[in-house]
Write a structure and sequence with these properties.
With about 260 residues, the protein is α/β, with parallel strands linked by helices. The protein is built from six helices and 13 strands. The N and C termini lie far apart (about 40 Å).
Amino acid sequence: MASQAVMKMPLVPTDTQDVAFTKQNTGTIVTSTHTSVALWAAPDFVLRCPLLSKFQITAALDNQAHRAFAVTTFEPVRHTPLYQLSAGATKIFNDPNAGGNSINSEAFSFEVLQRLIGVRLLKSEMEIQYVWAEWKKTDFTVSFDARIFGVSVTRAYNFRGTFTHQDAVQLLTKKLYGVNVSSAGVCERDKWTKQILHIWTPHPEAPELLYSVYANMDEELKSNTVVIVTLSRNSNWLYRNDGTVTVAQTATQPASSISVGA
């Protein structure tokens, strides 16, 4: 296996400088800096993503041999207990899941993907069929370019404070393993082409830590997964399910993207 070279550059999309990562066939991690960023300005929040990252995500979904690691940012533009979201996000929010306190992050994960690349919800967590009822599950499935993709949502959140390198190792090892297990056990009718691992984090240090760990992980473990990290700002409700936030289906289509930059 070819060695991997990583260039040290900032990861998080901003209004002035954005960075995207892609895995090349040579085994080398290439880092590209770009000033162009796509904005999705919804009534309740703003989503940012480097244009190159958006292209790399769609390219990795289109080609089984490719994968991508991308970073986006999410920020509410006003404080509200009721968010107007798409039909898919509203369904995920209202449907039963396998338990836990992740319903907010899962519903907004679909909203991010829907606005970012235009996916369509196929099935929520408990609608997906596996070879055994207790099999490791993915959170929902989507359609993109007439193909099925699984989506696993997790949160890089250290309740004690700083997110560490060891936190990144534990999270990615556990979640990428779970992605592979769920892919192996899904029934043929729901079988996906590839999975998306969507990681929410409120920690500014987490995207770079996650990438540094990801870049050196076993190739087989990450071979069938596109990783998207979303740095959230002023939205701690994404990391708990205490009833302070709810969603409703918007009466209009989601806002279109706006490209800005140098």
